[in-house]
Amino acid sequence: MPRDSAVTWLVVAVVVTVLAMIAFVVFVPTPTPEAAPASANVATPSNVAWTEETIAEVNGGDTVRGMVLARRCEKCHGEEGFSDSGEIPNLASMDKLAFWKQLEDYRAGKRKSALMQPQAAVLTRRDETDLTAYYALLPAIPDPQDTRVKAVAAIDPQAAATAARLVALGDGTRGIPPCQGCHGPVGNVRGAPSLATQNADYILAQLEAFADGSRANDINLPMRTIAAQLNQEDRKALAQYYGSGLGALPGGASPVWKK
Ligand code: HEC
Ligand code: HEC
Q1: pTM of the predicted structure, to 2 decimals
Q2: In a 3-state reduction of DSSP, which class is residue 233?
């Protein structure tokens, strides 16, 4: 009967539609949630990118406001930006981009430190920029009266030679470029601080942290790659070399400051 067949077709159509809907729900994958923001991605070394805007922002700090804010940094980093502990970095005259990036990385948890992360967590971007301006202005040569500057023991000549070679020439056989091509004084890459007045213990700790990946905030991995290629002896020699002031001039000609 035509009427019955119409009903049958209607029932079949409904059943097919329901089955199709069930199949859709079961088999069609749910769309993946929107990509997580870069800050949530642990594989991203840093949220900082060196765009024109960022560079302009970093260079636009207020030195006087920075000086006031720096009061809370002095107990660890020293009144003149020279720390009295070899494990705490000197900040005097630090390269602006490098300084600012490190604060941003601590704030975002991209660089880990039980001491510095809480310090950076309470800073605004403007605070970071102002602190950057202030520390960049502090002279790299400490007050000669300032006895808090750590004396660095005379460096062993063998270690000095090893370090001088790596700093000036690198080591092609291990793919290590010369340090002075990125950290100065020969060349500078964005975000690479001068090491000329940095503390030996701090430098050694950073080279070890890059080598084992516990510090992983270097954009494009230059330092993780280089530090992993250096052996323990090289890392110690380099830390001593810079810590004793030999990195101030190309080839370690003459230390600018030393106690
Ligand atoms: C409680 C001690 C302490 C205080 C206070 C402190 N710092 Fe630090 N800071 C450290 C230590 C320790 C490190 C090295 C941590 C690491 O190994 O990553 C460090 C590292 C840094 C670095 C990275 C330097 C580099 O060469 O990469 C910057 C920049 C810095 N501090 C700025 C500041 C500023 C600005 C303040 C004040 C707002 C401040 N710190 C307050 C202990 C302190
Ligand atoms: C290709 C460029 C490049 C070369 C070559 C290079 N570095 Fe670096 N280095 C960087 C950059 C960029 C950073 C900053 C990483 C970041 O953003 O945290 C850095 C950071 C560092 C730091 C940490 C500084 C601080 O204040 O925390 C140390 C120590 C260091 N380098 C030592 C060396 C030594 C020693 C050599 C030579 C064996 C070397 N580097 C060669 C680019 C380079």
Answers
A1: 0.85
A2: helix
